[in-house]
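Milestone 3.1: sequence recovery, worked example.
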């Protein structure tokens, strides 16, 4: 300790200018602190804005979740029952569908409500308006499942109407979507239309794809049956000779259907 104090004594004293410089280095504010001091009002305002935005996002997220839940509840109400006959008959709660479309824009349920409204219009005899509604859903619904369902409905409609070009276009779009509840149906329908047009090779390709791509589909059996009879001519009915039609007897005069008598009895 003595040596240390002796060394300190031997050191020359600092000038006032040197003392001032050391004070500024050790005690003066850092660059970060200087920035904070100069801009503290701006930083407070910015922080408040960020907090308000975060709070608004939470509130909006809660609001959207509530909107989705309410719209989903109305959609279930519109369906009324859950069996498949509901869709086939177009038996939907029209008021609930209209409310979803009007009061819950942007929710996942809107596309489904529009699709169901289109189906109901078709079944109710307003085919033109219903098809137009379904076409809009098939093109622009946010939910891919709803788009595919609308496309499948339209494809079946055009297929029954004999518009094979439009039906083929829509079934191909459903098929290209890959794994969906309507994939096997699309392939089977495309195969049936190809077979009807005389394209046996094309029909065989579509039926075979069902076995390869949709092995668990209940339509697999139908596809396999079609493959078995593909290219086989259906038996043609042969009319009996005119004399047998009139008498009910063959050329030897014997009854064609013993025990029943002649067709005139």
């Amino acid at each position: 300790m003595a040596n240390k104090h002796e060394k300190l004594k031997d050191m020359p004293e600092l000038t006032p200018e040197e003392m001032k410089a050391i004070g500024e280095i050790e005690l003066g504010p850092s660059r970060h602190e200087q920035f904070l001091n100069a801009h503290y009002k701006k930083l407070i305002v910015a922080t408040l804005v960020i907090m308000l935005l975060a709070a608004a996002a939470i509130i909006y997220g809660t609001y959207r979740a509530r909107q989705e839940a309410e719209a989903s509840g109305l959609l279930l109400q519109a369906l009324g029952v859950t069996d498949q006959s509901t869709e086939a008959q177009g038996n939907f709660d029209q008021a609930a569908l209209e409310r979803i479309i009007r009061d819950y824009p942007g929710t996942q349920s809107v596309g489904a409500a529009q699709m169901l409204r289109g189906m109901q219009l078709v079944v109710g005899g307003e085919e033109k308006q219903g098809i137009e509604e379904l076409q809009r859903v098939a093109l622009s619904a946010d939910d891919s499942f709803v788009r595919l369902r609308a496309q499948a409905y339209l494809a079946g409609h055009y297929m029954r109407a004999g518009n094979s070009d439009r039906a083929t276009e829509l079934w191909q779009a459903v098929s290209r979507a890959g794994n969906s509840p309507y994939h096997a149906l699309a392939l089977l329908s495309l195969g049936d239309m190809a077979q009807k047009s005389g394209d046996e090779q094309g029909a065989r390709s579509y039926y075979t794809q069902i076995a390869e791509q949709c092995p668990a589909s209940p339509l697999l059996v139908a596809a396999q049956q079609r493959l078995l009879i593909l290219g086989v001519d259906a038996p043609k009915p042969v009319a009996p000779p005119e004399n047998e039609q009139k008498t009910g007897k063959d050329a030897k005069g014997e009854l064609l259907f013993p025990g029943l008598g002649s067709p005139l009895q």
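Residues 37-142 form one domain. Residues 22-32, 81-86, 260-265 have pLDDT under 50 and may be disordered.
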